[in-house]
Design brief:
The complex is a heterodimer of chains A (376) and B (185). With 376 residues, chain A is an alpha/beta fold. Helix content of chain A is 42%, strand content 18%. In chain A, the strands form 4 sheets. A 5-stranded mixed β-sheet of chain A has the order 4-5-7-6-12, with helices on both faces. Chain A has a 5-stranded mixed β-sheet with strand order 9-11-10-13-14, sandwiched between helices. Chain A has a two-stranded antiparallel sheet with strand order 1-8. Chain B is an alpha/beta fold and 185 residues long. Classes of the chains: A alpha/beta (376), B alpha/beta (185).
Chain lengths: 376, 185
C-alpha cells in the first residue's frame, strides 16, 4: 500500500475524485440539485486537464443516459450522475443499459420525488428503479461513496451490468468530512483499464440490440436475471480486494454494528444508517441489546448474508425513508419480509416510515422510534 | 464528540465558517465535519450549519439539535438561535460589539463587524464577518492560534494576510460576557 492522502471534502466532490481516480473516458451530464456539484467538479477536471475524458453536456437526463449507453457500447468507461426526477426521466434508458449489458456507473444522489417539490433526501427515487436491472449500492459516508464508485466500475465491467451508487443529497453530498485518497498506483492496481469484450466501431460495422423473437429474447432476460444474482460474489470480492489494496472497508453486501448479540436490530440504508450507530449506542446505554444491519447492496438483495447475520429471535426494526404505495410501510421492509418468509420464522419484522423529504433523522429521534416500536 | 451550530443570515458566509472549523479540527489532529443546512438559497434568509469535531470517526449526519456551542452570526438572531436548541451545558458565541449575556449559558461576544471592516474585509454587501468569527470560535474551543492560522493559510495560500489579521484580532479580543457563570469554558 502506497501512502494515502487525507483531505477534507464533500460527498459530491468525493464522487468526482473517484471518477478521476477511475480514469473515466466519457461523462455525459445534465444538472439537477443536489447532484450538480458532481458534474460541476468533473467538468472542471476535464477543462483543466486533470481528467482526460470527454464531457458531453446534454439537454436532459434521458439524453444523458442515451449518451452513456452509446459511449459504453463504443467501448468507453462511462460515468454520469443524477437525482430524483432526473433519474425518473432516465428510467426507459436505464433498461437499455442493463439489457444491453453495458457497464455504465452512475451516482444517484438521493432526493425526494415531486409532487410537491422537495430538494432533500429520501429513497423513493432509487428504490423506484428496482426493476431496471441495475445493481444498486447505497452508501452511508463520503469515504464509502469514493470507495464504492471504484468497486462499482470493477463489478460492472466484470459482469457487464450497470451499477448505480446511491447516497443522500445534502447529508452526504454537501457534507464536508475527511476523505482518504489512496495512491493512484494502488487504484490502478485495483481497477485496470476497461477491456470491452466487443464494441461498436465504424471501421468494423456491426449492429447492436436488434428486434428479437421470443425464443431469442427470453434467454437474454434469463441471463440478465441470473447474472445480477451472481454479481453478489463479485461485490464481495471487490470489497475484499479493495481492502487488501487500500486498507479501507465499508462492508461488502452488508455492514453491521454490534449485531452479534443483538436482540433488537435496526435495519436501514444510507446516511441514516450511519447516524443509527449513535442510536444503537444510546439504546445500549439503556441496557437494550441493540445492533445494526445496513444493506450496502439493495439490488441484488443480499438475502443469504442477511439471513446468516441476524441473531436468533431478534426483532428487526426497519426504518424506511420511502413509501411502498399500496402496502402499509416502506419498501425495505417488504423486501426483507419476502426473503425471511419460510427461512427465518424466529424473527419479527417491524416497520416505520421516517425522514421523508429530508426530515432530519437525529440519533435521539431514531432511538426513540426503536423504543416505541419495541412496545408495539 | 463536540457539536456546534452556526445560526446566521444567507450571505454572511456561514458555509465557509463551517468549512474552516471542520478543517481546523483536521489540522488539530481530529476528525471534523461541516454539514450546512441548505434551505431556500437567498440572501437574508435565516441559515444554519452543523459542525462536529471528534477524536474518532464521526457517524452523525443530522443537524445539531442540542449543540455544545451555538455561534450567532447576527445578534438579531440570538434568541431564535438559542431557542432552536442547545445542550444544558452549552456555550453561546455572539457577533456583537458589547456583552449580550444569557443567565443560563456562558456567553462570549466578539465585534466581528468592526474587526472585518478594520482589516479591509468587506464588500458593498457588508463585512466578511465569518473570518473574525472563525478566530473567535477557535479561541473559545481552545484551538491553538497556530492551528487557526495554518487553516487560513491552507485555504488562501496566496492572499491570506488580511484574513490572518482579522482572525488573529478576534482570537485575542473575544470576551466572555458573563464570567460569573460556573462551568464557564
Amino acid at each position: 500500500m502506497k501512502t494515502a492522502q487525507v483531505i477534507m471534502d464533500t460527498g459530491a466532490h468525493a464522487a468526482a475524485l473517484a471518477v478521476k481516480s477511475a480514469r473515466v473516458d466519457v461523462v455525459p451530464g445534465y444538472p439537477i440539485t443536489p447532484q450538480t456539484s458532481i458534474m460541476e467538479a468533473v467538468a472542471a477536471m476535464v477543462e483543466n486537464g486533470e481528467l482526460h475524458a470527454r464531457f458531453i453536456p446534454v439537454e436532459g437526463e434521458h439524453s444523458a443516459m442515451a449518451a452513456a449507453v452509446a459511449a459504453s457500447a463504443a467501448g468507453a468507461r462511462v460515468f454520469t450522475a443524477t437525482s430524483a426526477n432526473g433519474l425518473l426521466y432516465m428510467h426507459e434508458v436505464l433498461h437499455m443499459a442493463s439489457g444491453g449489458r453495458l457497464p455504465v456507473v452512475m451516482c444517484n444522489v438521493n432526493r425526494g420525488i415531486f409532487a410537491p417539490w422537495t430538494l432533500w433526501a429520501d429513497h423513493q427515487d432509487s428504490f423506484a428503479q428496482r426493476d431496471t436491472g441495475w445493481i444498486q449500492y447505497h452508501c452511508s459516508s463520503n469515504q464509502e461513496v469514493y470507495n464504492t464508485i471504484l468497486q462499482a466500475f470493477r463489478v460492472a465491467e466484470q459482469i457487464n451490468i450497470p451499477v448505480m451508487v446511491n447516497f443522500d443529497g445534502f447529508a452526504i453530498s454537501h457534507c464536508l468530512m475527511p476523505l482518504t485518497l489512496p495512491a493512484q498506483e494502488d487504484i490502478d492496481r485495483f481497477l485496470p483499464p476497461y477491456e470491452p469484450g466487443w464494441r461498436l466501431d465504424p471501421a468494423h460495422p456491426s449492429s447492436f440490440s436488434n428486434v428479437t423473437n421470443a425464443a431469442e429474447y427470453a434467454p437474454f432476460r434469463e441471463m440478465l436475471s441470473g447474472d445480477i444474482l451472481a454479481s453478489i460474489s463479485l461485490v464481495k470480492q471487490a470489497a475484499q480486494e479493495y481492502k487488501e489494496i487500500t486498507g479501507m472497508w465499508d462492508g461488502d453486501t452488508i455492514d453491521t454494528y454490534l449485531l452479534e448479540d443483538a436482540e433488537v436490530v435496526a435495519f436501514a440504508v444510507n446516511s441514516m444508517a450511519a447516524e443509527l450507530r449513535l442510536s444503537i449506542d444510546i439504546l445500549r446505554e439503556q441496557g437494550i441489546k441493540a445492533g445494526l444491519l445496513r444493506p450496502r447492496l439493495y439490488l441484488p438483495f443480499p438475502t443469504e448474508d442477511i439471513i446468516n447475520a441476524i441473531p436468533q429471535n431478534a426483532q428487526i426494526m426497519v426504518l424506511d425513508r420511502n413509501y411502498n404505495f399500496g402496502h402499509p410501510g416502506g419498501i425495505l421492509a417488504s423486501e426483507l419480509k419476502s426473503v425471511l418468509f419460510g427461512r427465518r420464522n424466529d424473527l419479527t419484522v417491524k416497520n416505520r416510515v421516517v425522514g421523508i423529504g429530508g426530515i432530519d433523522l437525529t440519533r435521539r429521534f431514531m432511538a426513540e422510534e426503536i423504543l416505541s416500536m419495541m412496545e408495539e | 464528540m463536540l457539536e456546534l451550530r452556526i445560526n446566521g443570515f444567507g450571505g454572511q458566509g456561514s458555509v465557509t465558517l463551517a468549512h474552516l472549523l471542520a478543517q481546523a479540527a483536521l489540522e488539530n489532529g481530529k476528525q471534523g465535519q461541516a454539514l450546512p443546512f441548505f434551505g431556500v438559497e437567498r440572501r437574508g434568509a435565516p441559515v444554519r450549519a452543523a459542525v462536529r469535531m471528534s477524536p474518532t470517526t464521526i457517524h452523525a449526519h443530522s443537524q445539531c439539535e442540542l449543540p455544545d456551542f451555538v455561534v450567532v452570526m447576527s445578534e438579531k438572531l440570538t434568541e431564535a438561535a438559542v431557542s432552536e436548541g442547545i445542550h444544558e451545558n452549552g456555550t453561546v458565541i455572539i457577533n456583537a460589539p458589547y456583552a449580550a449575556a444569557f443567565d443560563n449559558y456562558p456567553t462570549w461576544h466578539v465585534d466581528a463587524d468592526s474587526i472585518a471592516r478594520e482589516a479591509g474585509l468587506f464588500s458593498a454587501d457588508g463585512p466578511f464577518i465569518n473570518i473574525p468569527l472563525f478566530g473567535a470560535v477557535c479561541r473559545v474551543l481552545n484551538i491553538p492560534q497556530n492551528i487557526m492560522e495554518q487553516t487560513i493559510k491552507n485555504k488562501w495560500p496566496e492572499n491570506g494576510k488580511r484574513n490572518l489579521n482579522a482572525a488573529g484580532k478576534a482570537y485575542h479580543t473575544v470576551t466572555q460576557s458573563n464570567k460569573q457563570l460556573a462551568g464557564s469554558r
